[in-house]
Structures are given as structure tokens and as C-alpha cells.
């Protein structure tokens, strides 16, 4: 049995219109390529990405922070309730073969950090600018459009791009 690639899309619950537009197009592009979209299952970027994926016949998984489906966006096909609050961000990231970050606030920043910690490829679309102290910089991939973000995420996921300097460490015991 062939399992479709799952890609995590992260971004703010309260997103500006341009981020919502880009997230919806990311969802559409992922569905057109047969990918399953994983997100936090709430509003803003998450809802827009799910709406785009479902409009193209794609599948969506929402990893919810609550112990029930209250607050879930209407485009989540498969809700997973966790009762973990923002700790569910780690599950969102670990469930995908790559992460696409669209816009976002501190929750998105935590998801980017988790992805780097676990060696997941991260594609930034109008999202955070990050640098690390010292000469070694995080392996972040920038994209200028939703289509480019999806292409780069899929290419990195297929290549098994785990070039993060902390990828070989056990994140449960890291700093």
C-alpha cells in the first residue's frame, strides 16, 4: 500500500488576509500533488490551508490542542484531539515529512524550532527570519510563493533533508 506524503502547514490562528490567501493556495497545491495536509486544526492559516486542500479533494488532519473538537475549523477531515494545549505543536511537526510555515506568531516559531530540533525540513513563506549565534545557521528554506513553497517542501522531504545540526541529538534530552 502506498501511503501519501503528509506535509505540516503551520501559521497563526489570527492571520492577515495575504497570509490567509497564501495558506489556502498552499493547501490547494498540496492536494493537487496527492499530499495529506497536517495542521493544528484551528483558524487563520490552518483553516485556510485546510479549505484549499479540501477544495481540491485533498485530505486534512487537525491536531487539536483541546480534549474535544470545539474550535476545530470546518475543513478538518480527520480531527485528533490531544488535550495537550500548545504542546501539541510537536505532534503537528512530527506528523509531516516537511513543514511549511506561513506567516505566524510565537506558536509558529515554536513549531519551526521543533522542526529544526527533529531534523524536519522547514520552508518559510512570509514567515520568521531567524539566525543562530555563531557561524552555523539553521537550515531554513525560503519561498516566495505558495507553489514554490510546496515544491521546495516536497523536494526536501523526498531528499530526506535532515541537515539540521541538532538532528542527530535526542530532542527529548537536548537543550
What do these coordinates show?
34% of the residues lie in helices and 18% in strands. Residues 161-175 have low confidence and may be disordered. Strand 1 (6-11), helix 1 and strand 2 (36-39) form a beta-alpha-beta unit. It is globular. It is an alpha/beta fold and 175 residues long. The protein has one domain (6-173): Rossmann fold.
Outline:
By secondary structure, the protein is an alpha/beta fold. It is built from five helices and seven strands. The longest helix has 16 residues, at 17-32.
Considering the chains and any ligands shown, give keywords for the structure.
single chain; 175 residues; alpha/beta; Rossmann fold; 7-stranded parallel sheet; 34% helix; 18% strand
Amino acid at each position: 500500500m502506498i501511503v501519501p506524503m503528509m506535509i505540516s502547514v503551520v501559521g497563526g490562528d489570527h492571520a492577515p488576509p495575504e497570509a490567509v490567501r497564501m495558506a489556502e493556495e498552499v493547501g490547494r497545491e498540496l492536494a493537487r500533488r496527492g499530499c495529506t495536509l497536517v495542521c493544528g486544526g484551528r483558524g487563520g492559516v490552518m483553516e485556510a490551508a485546510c479549505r484549499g486542500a479540501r477544495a481540491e479533494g485533498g485530505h486534512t488532519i487537525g491536531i487539536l490542542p483541546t480534549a474535544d473538537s470545539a474550535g476545530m475549523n470546518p475543513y478538518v477531515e480527520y480531527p485528533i484531539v490531544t488535550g495537550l494545549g500548545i504542546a501539541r505543536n510537536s505532534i503537528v511537526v512530527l506528523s509531516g515529512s516537511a513543514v511549511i510555515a506561513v506567516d505566524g506568531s510565537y506558536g509558529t516559531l515554536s513549531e519551526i524550532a521543533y522542526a529544526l530540533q527533529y531534523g524536519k525540513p522547514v520552508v518559510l513563506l512570509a514567515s520568521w527570519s531567524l539566525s543562530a549565534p555563531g557561524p552555523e545557521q539553521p537550515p531554513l528554506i525560503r519561498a516566495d510563493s505558495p507553489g514554490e513553497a510546496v515544491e521546495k517542501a516536497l523536494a526536501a522531504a523526498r531528499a530526506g533533508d535532515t541537515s539540521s545540526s541538532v538532528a542527530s541529538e535526542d530532542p527529548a534530552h537536548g537543550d
